[in-house]
């Protein structure tokens, strides 16, 4: 598994092992969804100004958000990895053979704000945002209540498997 982490935030998370947590949560999400491949994920840590710009440029939404997910794959059904080998040219890194899942962008400002708002640790909030984003990279969404309920259950299960609790 390759996780490319870039930190361009102006608000560090000194009490959070950003690399260690990212590795644990991404691996747990892959295990939970039974991903049969080694995978590559890109993680960008930025601040509210940085994520605001990306949100505006890529989604047309003119405000900061906590996390953005840019999946590299399209799924017929969420986490259905069976057709991936048919599209090997588009789905796998030719140098490493790893499945290219996509990009996660997290605002460290929002990690701090939301941890305080929800009364849990920054580590838990950071882990939650990664788990949430990984599910998007696997093709899940939360546009309707039924989809949201599925994502909420899966996020909770991933974090519980790591004993990262509220």
Automatic annotation (TrEMBL):
GO term, biological process aspect, one: rRNA processing
The EC number(s) this enzyme carries: 3.1.-.-
Domain of life: Bacteria
Alphabetic keyword roster: Cytoplasm, Endonuclease, Hydrolase, Metal-binding, Nuclease, Ribosome biogenesis, rRNA processing, Zinc
Cofactor(s) listed in the protein's UniProt record: Zn(2+)
GO cellular component: cytoplasm
UniProt-recorded Gene Ontology molecular function terms: metalloendopeptidase activity; RNA endonuclease activity; zinc ion binding
Pfam hit, one: YbeY
UniProt xrefs under NCBIfam families: rRNA maturation RNase YbeY
Family: Belongs to the endoribonuclease YbeY family.
PANTHER family linked: ENDORIBONUCLEASE YBEY, CHLOROPLASTIC
Name of this protein: Endoribonuclease YbeY
Organism: Anaerosacchariphilus hominis
């Amino acid at each position: 598994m390759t996780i490319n982490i870039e930190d361009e935030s102006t608000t560090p998370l000194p009490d959070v092992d950003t690399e260690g947590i990212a590795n644990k949560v991404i691996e747990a999400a892959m295990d939970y969804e039974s991903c049969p491949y080694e995978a590559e994920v890109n993680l960008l840590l930025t601040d509210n100004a940085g994520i605001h710009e990306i949100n505006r440029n890529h989604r047309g939404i003119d405000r900061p958000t906590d996390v953005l997910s840019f999946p590299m794959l399209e799924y017929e059904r969420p986490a259905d990895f069976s057709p991936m080998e048919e599209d090997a040219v588009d789905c796998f890194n030719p140098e490493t053979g790893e499945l290219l899942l996509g990009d996660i962008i997290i605002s460290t400002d929002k990690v701090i704000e939301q941890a305080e708002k929800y009364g849990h640790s920054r580590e838990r909030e950071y882990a939650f945002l990664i788990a949430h984003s990984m599910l998007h990279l696997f093709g899940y969404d939360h546009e309707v209540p039924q989809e949201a309920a599925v994502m909420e259950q899966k996020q909770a299960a991933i974090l519980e498997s790591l004993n990262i609790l509220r």
